[in-house]
Automatic annotation (TrEMBL):
This is Ig-like domain-containing protein. The lineage of its organism: Eukaryota, Metazoa, Chordata, Craniata, Vertebrata. The keyword Signal applies. GO terms for cellular component: external side of plasma membrane. GO terms for biological process: cell surface receptor signaling pathway; immune response.
Amino acid sequence: MKQADHQSLNWTMEETFLQCLYFVSLLQCCSTNEARLTVSPSTSQFFKGESVSLICEDDSSAGWTLRRNTTRQQRTQCETDWGRRAASSCTISYMIIEDSGVYWCESRDGSTSNSITITVTEKLTTTTKPLIPPAPPPSPGLVSSFPLHRVVFFICVYVLVVILMLLVTLVLSERGRNKSKADVAVDFTDSDIKLSHQQQQ
């Protein structure tokens, strides 16, 4: 049997049991109702962890006691076994699943009020992952690590350095050529002087 079917079967059995408790409580009304049970907030369906106040409304001072029948215990009374009593009301500050049952007011002589069936269920929770917002687009100033005018400046400096190196290379090369021509001319002049001197002798 699947888990969902098993839970559905358990829920159906619990509802049937609570209905039986309700009819048993009705059978206890052997005399005319002298009090009226009200619930605040005005609902019979609660989630686990919520609070509820049950109030016995009665014009007389017969001394009513709030009782309940649950799947675990029968005819238990407020403050002695559950809840906190204040005058003619009883408050359950934190409800649990076991608080599901039939509630009614009962006087000292056995008279009972109307019965209210209260059901407590687990609060549904969703396990959705939090949505991560998309990252904002980068600002124009962060697209490049350097501003445009700095890039142009560095390019210009690089071009000037290259041009200067070429000029220096050309100048040095031209000086080398001129020096070689001067040395050759001096050599020729010395040779001519020697030859003419020998011929005169």
